[in-house]
Design brief:
The protein has 13 helices and nine strands. The chain is of the alpha+beta class. The protein has two domains: 13-46, no CATH class; 52-415, no CATH class. The strands form two sheets. Strands 5, 6, 7, 8 and 9 form a five-stranded antiparallel sheet that branches. The chain has a four-stranded antiparallel sheet with strand order 2-3-1-4. It is globular and about 65 Å long. The N and C termini lie far apart (48 Å).
């Protein structure tokens, strides 16, 4: 039987723990470092339990769901669920109501009602975001096929695909990100437990990024090929950002419930790192079209200098090769098509031949995948020099509704409309 001290600890919310962080002050930090590993308990108790990374939080409620425009966190989990046999629209609505309430509590740094796991009891929210989406089959299973958006039609086949159906698609999709691994896992575990009886996990993937503070200043993240990844991402300050990423407010038709939402294309892309690492640096840079050291385009300048696709080198050849990734993927090469990429790297051990089972959990956000992901991927599929070093092994497309107000739940306009 737990003693009274343990019982009290379980009553303390993670939000209240945030309040103690500032009280310890800098003096506590200095004392803690001087005491060393064997300092007395009083000194340890005076140390601030949370840093700025741990106490950072993102609001759950709002016009858009969190986890789209925010920078990708250090730890991520992606999971797809299939509705259980017999689960109907009413059961789906009850599940989304539970999930939304729990996500709001977790993102605010509070322990969810009824949760006694203690996994992240002493942690702050650590920039936790939880995002929910609906797959193609969700609408058939809930009797809402007439509300399914045409933008959710299955993606076309691409010649470079080697997709595993068991790790693709799904009725429901959950994206979790946090800057603390325990906070991220805790959210995944609680949501998975709350799905019991209504939905079961179809597939689940774990990812990571560089930890906050790992560089002397904020920098574009690198992927497992060592390349800066995301330099040319659309930015919220761009005049047409919302138009590219979010379904407009006032959207009409059967899928009017998607106003303020977005569509997520999710791809597990394995990188053939043994082959890639055997390329000389100069060859790697030509395949990408950027310098590996600082991300600057081979046409000149710095990382943020616009790529000059017409630039010719002293030898008369294009500075950016015809099959370079940045050329083939550029909006200028795709009639303006663009998407917001928000990815996590992954490493799932080693294959039988010793090659790393590692790569990118690619998530692309757009207002319409037929105008964003599909045309760009078709172009990459036909002429991207990087494609020789990649294998697309799973895929999913999900309708991610807009955010909800306090007292509401994600998807309420669909499920109760």
């Amino acid at each position: 039987m737990a003693d009274s001290t343990t019982d009290q600890a379980h009553l303390i919310s993670r939000r209240r723990l945030l309040g103690t962080a500032g009280a310890a002050g800098a003096a506590g930090l200095v004392a803690g470092s001087a005491a060393g590993a064997f300092g007395d308990q009083a000194v340890r108790d005076r140390q601030a339990p949370l840093t700025g990374v741990g106490s950072a939080s993102v609001a759950f409620h709002g016009t858009h769901q969190a986890g789209i425009v925010q920078p990708a966190q250090a730890h991520g989990h992606l999971a797809a669920f299939d509705l259980a046999p017999g689960a109907d629209r009413k059961a789906a609505a009850a599940l989304l109501r539970r999930w939304s309430a729990t996500a709001a509590e977790l993102m605010a740094g509070q322990a969810p009602k009824g949760d006694d796991t203690g996994i992240a009891l002493d942690a702050g929210p650590a920039s936790l975001t939880v995002t929910f989406g609906f797959g193609h089959g969700f609408f058939d299973r809930t009797g809402l096929a007439d509300k399914r958006p045409t933008a959710l039609d299955p993606l076309p086949a691409f010649t470079g695909d080697a997709l595993d159906a068991k790790r693709s698609d799904g009725d429901l999709w959950v994206q979790i990100g946090a800057d603390d691994a325990l906070v991220a896992f805790h959210a995944l575990r609680v949501l998975q437990k709350q799905a019991a009886g209504a939905a079961r996990v179809r597939w689940q993937m774990n990812g990571f990024n560089r930890a906050p503070g790992a560089t002397e200043r904020p920098k574009t993240a690198r992927n497992l090929m060592g390349q800066m990844d995301g330099t040319n991402n659309p930015k919220p300050t761009d005049a047409n950002f919302d138009e590219r990423v979010f379904v407009p407010d006032g959207h009409k038709g059967a899928d009017a419930w998607m106003a303020g939402g977005s569509y997520a294309v999710v791809r597990r892309i394995r990188m053939l790192l043994d082959s890639w690492d055997n390329l000389a640096l100069e060859r790697q840079e030509k395949v990408i079209g950027r310098r590996k050291s600082d991300g600057a385009p081979l046409s000149g300048g710095t990382e943020t200098t616009p790529v000059d696709l017409d630039k010719v080198g002293p030898d008369g050849a294009l500075a950016i090769a015809g099959d370079a990734h940045v050329r083939v993927a550029a909006p200028a090469s795709n009639q303006g098509a663009a998407m917001l990429r928000r990815a996590f790297s992954y490493h799932d051990g080693f294959l039988d031949d010793g090659a790393p089972d590692a790569g990118l959990l690619f998530i692309a956000w757009q207002a319409d995948p037929l105008k964003g992901f599909v045309p760009v991927q078709r172009k990459l599929d036909r002429g991207d020099g990087l494609s020789r070093f990649l294998r697309h092994e799973s895929s999913g497309l999900f309708a991610v509704p807009g955010g909800c107000a306090e007292g509401e739940y994600v998807g309420q306009r669909l499920l109760e409309g």
